[in-house]
What we know:
This protein has 320 residues and is an alpha/beta fold. It folds into 2 domains: 1-17 and 25-48, no CATH class; 95-306, Rossmann fold (3-Layer(aba) Sandwich). It has 9 helices and 11 strands. It has helices at 28-36, 49-54, 58-85, 101-104, 128-145, 167-172, 188-200, 218-229, 303-306, and strands at residues 95-96, 112-113, 117-122, 150-155, 180-185, 207-211, 235-239, 251-262, 268-280, 286-293, 298-301. The strands form 2 sheets. The protein has a 9-stranded mixed beta sheet with strand order 5-4-6-7-3-8-9-10-11, sandwiched between helices. A two-stranded antiparallel ribbon has the order 1-2. Strand 6 (207-211), helix 8 (218-229) and strand 7 (235-239) form a beta-alpha-beta unit. Helix 7 (188-200) packs parallel to helix 8 (218-229). The longest helix has 28 residues, at 58-85. The protein is elongated. Residues 1-40, 44-54 and 305-320 have low confidence and may be disordered.
Amino acid sequence: MRYIANASTHHPSLPGSGPAGSAHAPGPLRGAHLHLMGSTPAPPHSRTKNESDCGTHPIATVQEQKKAADSAHVARLRRTIAKLETSFFRAAPSFLSLGIPEVQRHLPGPGLACGVLHEVNAATYGDGPAALGFLFALTSLALKAKPGLAVLIASQRAFAQWGRPYGHGLYRFGVDPGRLMLVETSTDKEALWAIEETLRSGVRPAMVTGVLEHSFDLTASRRLNLAAAALATPLALASPGKAAVASAAATRWRIGALPASRDRFGLLLHPCWSLSLERCRHGRPGKWLVEWDHVTHCFSLVEIMADRSSAQGTGLGSVG
């Protein structure tokens, strides 16, 4: 608080005071004026003009400190999650060869990468069996390359329209029913849980495949990627032919059925598919006509397309 003496104030009770308004009066107020305007500190509750202009409010300071602490905590959590996603538990990279150089030139490695999710979609609703046949063809290649069982996990409604796999058909694809474990669940959610638990278990299957009634979301695909990476397990998941949703799958394949070749008795000889690679991480898309040989249990390009260049083809040939 600033005290300023008023020279015109009359104080008759103060001894030795001069006439009112006298400039030479030695009244104590002049001394008081000099003393109070000097270096006497202001009371603790007072605040000068400069302090009021540049000071910070205590409540605002606490809120800013709390906000900074929360931001630091979120940053620590993000670093922890990043370490978990790239942990040392990730197995060495390996690949499942498709046996078709024209297709594998579009992939980042010599075949399908193991330890990541591969998405298989039917081109239309009626191409559901073709997509399932492609899964069994991949399973056959995995059983030839690796020991152990193959696991197929599907929701019950996924097989409602087309029926369950049977032994004779599995043998035609090169899948030994004795090495295939079929798990059926009531819902897609239970199927996704069973797939993740299988990948994280100590069974170490040769391959894990799944068939769902509906498309899976981004969160589910990320969880499956992390689970498959630990042991570099081949993983492929089939879903209906609907609009593609966001997922963390390394590749997305679109399978369409084509007229199969027949033997001299008119029986089906080799299933034929339109194979489209719509999305490939670190690779490039492509489209081919392929068939599956029931004798050698391997893929090959359709013969009428194998001799054509991509420039002369109809767009269904190899673009590699």
